[in-house]
Amino acid sequence: MRTGVTIDLRARRDAGLADQLRPLVEAYLGRPTVEVRFWDGSRLGPRGGPGALVLRSPEAIRRMAWAPGELGAGRAFVAGDLDVDGDIFAVVAALRPAGQRLRTTLRTVPAAVQAARRLGLLDRPPPPPPEEARPRGLRHSRRRDATAVSHHYDVGNDFYRLVLGPSLTYSCARFVDDATTLEAAQDAKHELVCRKLGLHERPGARLLDVGCGWGSMAIHAARHHDARVVAITISEQQAQLARARVRDAGLDDRVEVRLQDYRELHGEAFDAISSIGMFEHVGAARMSTYLGTLWSLLRPEGRLLNHAISSVGGSRLAGRSFAHRYVFPDGELIDVGDVVLGMEAAGFEVRDVESLREHYGTTLRAWVANLQQRWDEAVALVGEGRARVWLLYMVASAIGFEDGGLAVHQVLGVRGGEHGSSGMPRTRDGWVA
């Protein structure tokens, strides 16, 4: 603790930190709707709720003072200077509207500046936690995309297995009822994708799985529909484990896992293409290249199923957002309407659009439960900072899907055949087993 802070706290001990820091808190949150606790035991806001925001040290205020908005708060949480006592979903949900409204800096709030100065919080800011990423180079170039993907996915396969569960599937599941387990829900999602692609009607079809993760979709398609699968990823750790899982499943003759960028695919032909949870890394500027490449790889009457998170109007993660710095560097969410237009421009006939928004909220809550139940193991695997990144990101994402701020859509397109033939079934009846 810096000398200036210590002297001031001794001089104003009777007033309590809550009174001194109220201008700063209200500059950030408005009038608090959840309890806010400070390291000296003083408090602001209503008591007795499901959870409380806890500022454990002056560093929490210093981080937020120097980086107003979600980045400063995120840094404080990752570093452990800011914490939540109780129901983290309730606290983040209560604070989310304030975070969305915040567009100001401390320079516009004189009382907050004075409070920060009194407490010695306007000197040099603390360094960001080491988990923060700042990718370099041309956005969505192959090299920068590889760096961004590695930051997110090469955290460690054991950590992902802990969070995602036995299915090792890092995308929205499909819960057919309240009793459905996470593993069964992921299996149901894979089966839905296979049926939309018509694999159940064409045993032996050649499938390209773009952004294959740890191989779960490829294994499902080969095991249940005798598909011949080429599965690609640009994450080395994913490719290694996916190959091992394919071998363990006895599917080496039907599944090939490649460490390959979609832009490197040329001169091959597939009956179907699945892209599940990869499109968020493509970017709007590269969408036409991505969709055009996939169209060129399909045989006539071949189908593409694009499963991706979206938002109304689209959103490119800001450089100072928590998600960009800690979770998905360079991530972009594209409006589903623009996805449809982009697919049509590439030559696809769009045949179906389905939202699974509520299912993603349920999926994320299941992942959070896995992480919280095995917290000590997670920290041992990746360190407390990285575990806290994932906790905050998944909680905030779940709330985003539940309140409609985020969506996830499956868009099905077909490359037309001779005389406009599509090969599509007359109804959706066969899509759900």
TrEMBL record:
Record-linked InterPro entries: CFA/CMAS (IPR050723), CMAS (IPR003333), SAM-dependent_MTases_sf (IPR029063)
Ranges where the record places region Disordered: 118-145
Keywords: Lipid metabolism, Methyltransferase, S-adenosyl-L-methionine, Transferase
A Pfam family per the record: CMAS
SUPFAM superfamilies linked: S-adenosyl-L-methionine-dependent methyltransferases (SSF53335)
GO molecular function: methyltransferase activity
Family as reported in the entry's similarity comment: Belongs to the CFA/CMAS family.
PANTHER family in alphabetical order: CYCLOPROPANE-FATTY-ACYL-PHOSPHOLIPID SYNTHASE (PTHR43667)
Protein name as it appears in the record: Methyltransferase domain-containing protein
Organism per entry: Actinomarinicola tropica
